[in-house]
Amino acid sequence: MSMASESDERMIVPNSGVDSPSTDEANSLANVGNNVPLKKGPWTSAEDAMLAEYVAKHGEGNWNAVQKHSGLSRCGKSCRLRWANHLRPDLKKGAFTPDEERRIIELHAKMGNKWARMAAELPGRTDNEIKNYWNTRIKRRQRAGLPIYPPDICLQAMNENQQSDTMNTFSSRDVPMPPVNNIPFPSVEFKGLELNQPLYPQPLIDIPSNSLLDIPMSSLLAQGFRPSYQNKSLISTIHPPKRLRGSESLFPGSNTPISNLFTNGSQYQSDYLTSSSFFSGSQAVLNGNPSSEPGWAMKLELPSLQTQTGTTWGSPSPSSPLPVFESVDILIQTPPTELTQSPQNSGLLEEVLYESETIKNSNSNSFQQSSRAPNMANDVMENSARVLNETKWDAYDEEVSPLVKEEVSDLCPMQYDDKVETTNQMILSRPDLLLASNCLAPMKHPTNVMGTFLGDDWSRDCKQMDTGSTSSAQGRGRNSCAWNAMPTV
DNA sequence: AAATCTCACAACCGCGACACG
DNA sequence: TCGTGTCGCGGTTGTGAGATT
Questions:
Q1: What is the pLDDT of residue A471?
Q2: In this structure, is the CB of residue A82 within 7 Å of any atom belonging to strand B?
């Protein structure tokens, strides 16, 4: 497919306002000075040739001079992008190879959405390509109800992070850790949630992909067990206007790997495993309340919802209907701001302190709920392992792409009977799996769990079994079967 | 056959970092 | 130290093609 249309002659006038290229550069002298209308949209082959010729003569860089010297009616930024993404001679064309795909997954597990850094590790590939590939991938996998990272990559990321962490022992030195027995679990992120999103229960796979899938595995797991103020996600939620660069983080080492949690055998780990936020959050998913996502799921960035985060718990937008299901989970509910006078816009530290106080108060109410957590964890894991092994993937051969199939099969590579423990470890290391199993296991309905993993395909089959309907599930009512067919608990 | 949906991709936009005068 | 220009990054949007209804 070529986006470059020879007929595209959209021209814009610099400084014309809305349609001008990015304000910083469109207003620069390089563009305004010539008083030449800048063109936007797809590049023509003639423009490509002009740009290539310019770069051949003058080399890369000084992109704003391109317009002057080459006669191109494009802003420098556009030229740079075109060159970097399409004209560079060292670019590799065509689809990603399986090796490259795997590499991207690995890199994303380690880096998150650091496309440029990932591109640097993939010769001939651009950040844009990788970004597009990833976005497409997570959509696909979300629709299929599959976890984004294959287990082996999780383990690999854990191992690598563990190694790097031994060399970078920031966690105990550089960051003031909360007292072990008084860990404030975060709820501030809830403020940024969109209330008018499709209501759960549409199980975990309908958690916005942006929130669950766009962060490195290391962060994903770490966030599940650590106060979120270690992560920039929280910061960006609290202070949306202030963006942090990817390489930055409020606290050094915010990408601290999960491996600490599992290898250090610390009290910290066990405290978080039994923390009320973790398990009650999963329980809350069953309530069908989007506000009641598990703690780890709530701590995630919402990059694609930047413009949708206006709703807060304290001031529900009139256009944002409240969830149908009232939350019964007091652990997860953030007190309405108008009632508690949260220090709005008062700065991070203050806000964190405030939230910490709030949480402490609710913690006292939640102790009983959380006390059964360890047993729940075991139940969940056993159920999950069993269900995974009962699943017959072969039936879905034709509908699942090879890569997806490979990753799905990775989920249950062992026999339940003799490798339960391994499975449990795997699930423990996968918050997404844990959530899946955690929220569904209590139903004692294995097929629901299957639906979570199989998504559309299973939903469709299930629906057909239940209702005889032949309608496609594509893009609509995904996973509905798991819930429609779910017996009332 | 037409309408609709999904996918893949290209391009744009806003923002922050950095260099330099 | 400050202002300006340039570059790069990450998120979002627009669009054509193909698939599906």
A1: 31
A2: yes
The rounded distance, in Å, linking the Cα atoms of A260 and A263 is: 5
pLDDT tens across A50-103, in order?
A: 888 888 888 887 887 887 788 888 888 888 888 888 888 888 877 888 888 888
Is A98-144 in the same CATH topology as A11-87? Answer: yes
Largest CA distance in chain A: 75
Question: Residue A280 to residues A179, A181, A318, A377, A439: CA-CA distances in angstroms?
Answer: 21, 18, 29, 12, 10
Protein CA A56 to sugar C1' C5 (Å): 24
The C-alpha angle A92, A97, A103, rounded to 5 degrees, equals: 95
pLDDT digits (tens, 9 = 90+) for A159-198: 766 665 554 443 333 333 333 333 333 333 333 333 333 3
CB A474 within 7 Å, strand C: yes
The CA angle A205-A208-A213, to the nearest 5 degrees, is: 80
> Residue A155: how many CB atoms within 10 A of its CB?
17
Question: Separation of CA A174 and C1' C3 in angstroms?
Answer: 35
Find out whether A186 and A299 touch, Cβ atoms under 8 Å.
yes
Beta strands in A104-220 (DSSP E): none
Polymer length of chain A = 489
Which helix (H) or strand (E) is A295 found in, with range? helix A295-298
Helix axes A431-440, A373-390, angle to 10 degrees: 90
pLDDT the model gives residue A439? 33
Q: What is the pLDDT of residue A387?
A: 38
Question: How high is the pLDDT of residue A217?
Answer: 55
Domain ranges of chain A: 11-87, 98-144, 183-371, 374-484
pLDDT at A252: 32
Candidates A382, A176, A374; CA nearest to A276 is A374
Chain A 108-127 residues whose Cβ is under 7 Å from strand C: 113-117, 127
Both tokens assigned to A195: 């209330």
Taking the stretch 4-33 of protein chain A, residues with Cβ within 7 Å of any atom in nucleic acid chain B are 4, 19-25
Residue A216 confidence (pLDDT): 55
Q: Name the nucleotide with the smallest C1'–CA separation from A308.
A: C12
Instruction: Using 70 as the pLDDT threshold, list the residues of chain A that sit under it.
Output: 1-37, 157, 160-489
Q: Rounded to an integer, what distance in angstroms lies between the CA atom of residue A328 and that of residue A287?
A: 8
Nucleotide of closest approach to A93 (CA, C1'): B9
CATH class of the domain at A11-87: mainly alpha
Say whether domain A98-144 belongs to CATH 1.10.10.60: yes
